[in-house]
């Protein structure tokens, strides 16, 4: 039987998979997405954006931003503890020395970025973080800064003190009120991503963090995918097997609706602390996902069953959220009859649970270890990334916090 614990072990061995055989056109899409993203950001509020220029871009620093504290070097941060470690990097809790702001530092060792596709994925992740931050989306983890050093590429992001949702599950399901609230936050986060033609591809409790106020935020865009428009089909594989939609497993092409399938799996897991599909090995698990229907506990409410069944429709064209209405269709479900999404978007709904203030208590215990020193200097920062100079030439970035704007 594949267990959640085994799943995490598999993840260390690249259980999150990325196809090495994607079409050449998809590489072009990723490259184009960077330019498109840059244009979108620059065109939202031109005058305001001019004041947010990176302190280390080629553009001169505006006078009003002169003297702002540096965020470019690892020396600008006090690393506190290890929050997470996986095949795609190590995440540390840190404090920005100049401002006292708590942040998460995701350090990606350059030895793990040996292929141009991996390098472009890092850039895409950074661009999504940047987009989320500049739009001040409350349900997406955003970028604080990004920089390179001799051995690492670093993404500094918002820190969410409440930890990830999987730590609250363990053996017991979450109260229904919390499931409705957290999933409602995720609906709004996914809506923003999909509006910008981004497929997350790895929606699951482990990638949903709670901030200090109790609101849920989507994180980890490491396997995200840019699409051209609504309904555009892509083929590359990515995600965690438990949450993969049937069309992705069958490799017949998929759209943004794979995120809604994973969202349905996540709701089921939050309500039951179990997976709707299991298997003694990956082949059986995939068979059950593509061929079997989920079984529901007798105690589960009708509106909970209704939304899960509609999200787990094996026909992607009939799946809830698959139309051009996307998240708007999901919001109309009776499961959310008590949620005012307009108020939630403004964070005017009081969260049902406020995380404890303990710094790392809500993160998985195996991850909360003493920090290891990251050897980082600015000398030789192009090695071994000199293979991809065009990809990483504008990597350095520093975004100002809301209080700085």
UniProtKB/TrEMBL annotation:
GO terms for molecular function: ATP binding; protein serine/threonine kinase activity. Keywords: ATP-binding, Kinase, Nucleotide-binding, Phosphoprotein, Serine/threonine-protein kinase, Transferase. Residues 337-405 form the AGC-kinase C-terminal domain. PROSITE patterns: AGC_KINASE_CTER (PS51285), PROTEIN_KINASE_ATP (PS00107), PROTEIN_KINASE_DOM (PS50011), PROTEIN_KINASE_ST (PS00108). Residues 1-62 are annotated as: Disordered. ATP binds at residue 106. InterPro entries: AGC-kinase_C, Kinase-like_dom_sf, Prot_kinase_dom, Protein_kinase_ATP_BS, Ser/Thr_kinase_AS. The keyword NADP does not apply. Gene3D superfamilies: Phosphorylase Kinase, domain 1 (3.30.200.20), Transferase(Phosphotransferase) domain 1 (1.10.510.10). SMART domains: S_TKc. Belongs to the protein kinase superfamily. This is Serine/threonine-protein kinase N1. It comes from Xenopus laevis (African clawed frog).
């Amino acid at each position: 039987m594949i267990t959640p614990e085994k799943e995490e072990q598999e993840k260390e061995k690249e259980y999150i998979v990325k196809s090495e055989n994607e079409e050449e056109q998809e590489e072009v899409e990723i490259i184009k997405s960077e330019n498109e993203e840059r244009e979108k950001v620059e065109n939202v509020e031109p005058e305001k954006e001019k004041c947010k220029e990176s302190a280390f871009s080629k553009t001169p620093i505006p006078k009003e931003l002169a003297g702002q504290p540096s965020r470019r070097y690892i020396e600008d941060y006090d690393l506190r503890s290890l929050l997470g470690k996986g095949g795609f990097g190590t995440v540390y809790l840190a404090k920005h020395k100049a401002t006292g702001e708590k942040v998460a530092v995701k350090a990606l060792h350059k030895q793990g970025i040996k292929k141009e596709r991996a390098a472009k994925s890092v850039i895409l992740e950074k661009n999504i973080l940047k987009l989320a931050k500049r739009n001040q989306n409350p349900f997406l983890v955003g970028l604080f800064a990004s920089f390179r050093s001799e051995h690492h590429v670093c993404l500094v992001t918002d820190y969410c003190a409440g930890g990830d949702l999987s730590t609250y599950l363990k053996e017991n399901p979450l109260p229904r009120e919390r499931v409705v609230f957290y999933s409602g936050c995720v609906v709004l986060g996914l809506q923003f991503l999909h509006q910008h033609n981004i497929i997350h591809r790895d929606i699951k409790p482990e990638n949903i963090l709670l901030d200090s106020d109790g609101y849920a935020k989507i994180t980890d865009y490491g396997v995200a995918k840019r699409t051209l428009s609504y309904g555009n089909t892509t083929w590359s594989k990515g995600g965690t097997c438990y949450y993969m939609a049937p069309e992705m497993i069958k490799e017949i092409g998929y759209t943004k609706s794979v995120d809604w399938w994973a969202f349905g799996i996540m709701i089921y897991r939050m309500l039951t602390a179990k997976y709707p599909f299991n298997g003694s090995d990956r082949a059986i698990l995939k068979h059950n996902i593509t061929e079997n229907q989920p079984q529901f506990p007798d105690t589960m409410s009708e509106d909970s069953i209704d939304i899960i069944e509609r999200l787990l429709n094996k026909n992607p064209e009939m799946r809830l959220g698959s139309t051009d209405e996307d998240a708007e269709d999901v919001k109309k479900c009776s499961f959310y009859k008590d949620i005012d999404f307009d108020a939630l978007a403004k964070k005017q709904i009081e969260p049902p649970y406020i995380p404890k203030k303990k710094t790392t208590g809500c993160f998985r215990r195996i991850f909360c270890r003493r920090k290891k020193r990251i050897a980082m200097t600015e000398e030789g920062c192009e090695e071994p990334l000199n293979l991809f100079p065009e990809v990483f030439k504008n990597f350095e970035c520093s975004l100002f916090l809301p209080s700085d704007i």
